[in-house]
Amino acid sequence: MAVSASDAGRIPVADVPVESMAVKPPSHPTYDLKAVIALALSEDAGDLGDVTCLATVPKDMKAEAHFIAKDDGIVAGISLAQMIFNEVDPSLKVQWFAKDGDHVCKGMQFGKVYGCAHSIIVAERVVLNFMQRMSGIATLTKAMADAAHPACILETRKTAPGLRLVDKWAVLIGGGKNHRLGLFDMVMIKDNHISIAGGVMNALKSVDQFLRQKNLEMPVEVETRTLEELEELLQYATKNKTSLTRIMLDNMIVPHPNGDVDVSMLKDAVQLINGKFETEASGNVTIDTVKKIGETGVTYISSGALTHSVKALDISLKIDTELALQVGRRTNRA
């Protein structure tokens, strides 16, 4: 099953049950999800395949394996797991008792796969690697999105190389929203652009001219680091026709040694903008600070930690489920 970025929202129902496709992946013009899956399987198989399976598991052996959550959290990657099983062996029968975005508890069995034992074991680690990472991202996103409300939580481009769409899919499953997918779908004028252009006003002016010349329409965001930069930007936007849509208020959240944060500068900035543009807070965003940041009135809060420092959610796929649960209880992991 080929799933390119342009097809991402139209995965065939025959390959992925529609009931498990609770959240579709973000659309991307060039990303090939099937190629990512193939690469993950290839790095595991090498040039000989699963030599342990070849040595120990008869080719005609059938087995049933169960997915077991070994921690509480938000499960993500079910739809992707289905794609991987289909790629390894379309004859495998997979049944899910949860869908992407559902909460799972430690010890819960939330899915099972039946068929060729060799195929199940070959797919196992690749499926779990994707699911554990995606579930970790979704779990943190859910916690931060709930705390940030009414502000929306965003990730950044600080994703694992090659897994951009997968990481951002997990953010959607967790209840967040996507920032730009790459360099192509949004103009984002950051500090280095501003320094090279000779100021925030010069940078935005150049972008306005470029978009007009190329007859392009896309969101435009400008990063501001001081209230002076913000005032200069607003002054330009008042006097000129501009494509500006969002203002990033970067590092206007000042941390205190006790773990608290001072958001007074951020609040002042939001009041200056006064709803004329979307606002985005970034810097010093954690699960402990995001509620206070959200209360300032910002539209969005972006956090690189959602994807660059993810703690995987522990998930197992076990054939001898009862023994796995027994061991899990002994080690407090089920």
From TrEMBL:
* Keywords on record: Coiled coil, Glycosyltransferase, Pyridine nucleotide biosynthesis, Transferase
UniProt domain Quinolinate phosphoribosyl transferase N-terminal: residue ranges: 50-135
Catalytic activity reads: nicotinate beta-D-ribonucleotide + CO2 + diphosphate = quinolinate + 5-phospho-alpha-D-ribose 1-diphosphate + 2 H(+)
EC nos: 2.4.2.19
Q: Which residues form the Quinolinate phosphoribosyl transferase C-terminal domain?
A: 137-318
Q: Which GO terms describe its biological process?
A: NAD+ biosynthetic process; quinolinate catabolic process
Q: Which family does it belong to?
A: Belongs to the NadC/ModD family.
Q: What does this protein do?
A: Involved in the catabolism of quinolinic acid (QA).
Alphabetized PANTHER family for the sequence: NICOTINATE-NUCLEOTIDE PYROPHOSPHORYLASE [CARBOXYLATING]
> What is the name listed in the Swiss-Prot or TrEMBL entry for this protein?
Nicotinate-nucleotide pyrophosphorylase [carboxylating]
Originating species? Ensete ventricosum
